[in-house]
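Handout, tutorial session.
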Amino acid sequence: MSDSEPDEELLSLLRQSLGINGDPNHKQADTKVLKDAEYVYDNSIDVALDTQGTKAAAAKIWSLMQEKQYSLTTWSEHTLHPKGKDAETVNFVFLMDLLNFCFWSKNPDPTQCFSVEYHGQIFTGYWSLVAAIHRALEESIPITTPSFWIDETRCTNDLINHVFRSETLELIPLIQQRIDCIREAGRILDADFSGSVVTLIHKANHSAASLVNLLTTHFPCFNDIATFDSKPVRFQKRAQILVADLWACFDGQSFGSFHDIDTITMFADYRIPQMLHSLGCLRYSPPLETQIRSLREIESGCSWEVQLRGCSIWCVELIRREIKRQHPKAEVNAILIDFFLYDTMKQRVNDGLETIPHHRTRSIWY
């Protein structure tokens, strides 16, 4: 080979490290979440977007993000989020988002809801899950190790119940479903990815969308798809938030390096629709609003729930576009907007400033 000829093997390795496929006919990976959310929005009759409210919200959100200096690093500033930058941290984040669903309680007394005591503090909701994982590791229980999940002689159901024990009489919601997710993920990682979350991430070739698709293709418990007007619509909340949390945890480097991170949408859960309604972005039909305000459950996968989730994703996308239109140099994507809205809504709840309850759906999807 002459000095003027390219080293194709070296170029191939470089493309791979950057997540670039050398085939000009290769299409960039697509989760189809945003496309499906737009379809739901276009065909919704019980959830609507207020155009002026959305524009006003975009201005307010960006102003507050600037005021609070809210950025990617804010994620790691949360006390309980892992601070390491190694494979063990990858395992922690994987388990955290494998089980990141359904923490709300029917009990009107917040002191009697599922909660976890850790280092002298009581944590509820999502933070109770993160605290429980930390607590287990400090008790020398290897709860973040995938090979442990499939060793049912050591990792018994009773032990998993112990890991997620509560300070109250109320158990963590959907405990059997959480156990099932742990077992399923352990088996699939062992069979398809040499028992390694790191191997799974490497197979995505630094593509956020590819990692979402790998998760939803291989792991049924990540494949968050509903049906709307006889059409399948993808939400993929936990698969997307796993990618986002890796990106945030590793500061966009190493295991969190994704060349297409902006393809990830908002994570369709129950807190962000609540916040978007409070901001005047979302409006509900009278029957749906009555259902939510009366704290009556909404069935997972029903039309109301799909509209709430799909319209929320599309609303955050419109907020993102409006911020970029007003501030072309703004470094903002749907992930950061979601993180900010979630943190803000949780603070409003703690301050007693809720203007509408969140909708109540029992589901492993969020």
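The second record follows below. Compare its token runs with those of the first.
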Amino acid sequence: MVVYLAFSLHDTLLDTQKMTDDLEETLECGEQSARRIAAEWRKNQLEYTWRMNSMGIYKPFSEVMQGALKAAVRGEGVIVSDRQCEDLMHSMNQSHNRFKNVDQTISKLEKRKDLVLLIFSNSNYDMASNIARNWRGSMKKSPFQHIVTPDTVKVFKPARQFYDHLKGVLRSRPDSGGESMDLIYLISANPSDIVGANAADPNTLWFNRKGKRTWVDEMDANSKPDCEIWSWKRLETVKFKEIALKENHTE
């Protein structure tokens, strides 16, 4: 049996709030203003992808990010040039923005022969592959064996078609044992991502960054993560094969 761990990028592996310093320096605004812009930038990214899914339109995530940044900056009453916008987008998608302790956990998981690590992201392929390629750090190669992005299906999370695409890509791999033999876990800190995956049947592991409360999303009261963790260290101990489908566990 192969266990695929499909990691979401932004807010799960990459800390989007680490952009505060870059925003403050590039835009020459105060720290509090930079924090508000960083939060609004990420909020706009998610909202724009949801709107586009509803409207049946698609454009690469890099363009979504650019529009989301300009709107966030304008809302703060700050001027941003095209060059500054390009620099900030480049900074946001650098692997050095990853969360603390991610490297140690990813390195340990990557060495396990029963696991296959991959990136499952709204980012366009060039963007995601660049992050994966530069992830190596102390490792000899990128720990992610596959990258699944919306370039082909042209929809974003949490559209069911995108999760179905993920399953199709992985089930076509040479190491796949077929639908009845493989386990796919979506690992995300975003509740909408978890709910979207539940609708398409992959197992879900929610990274609860608050650490003080459990699952509270009520869009669908029956849609809860199969597993909940509060730290990267906990992820190393999860017994993926023993977690029954659609049963809620807290680790």
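Points raised in discussion: The longest strand covers residues 115-120.
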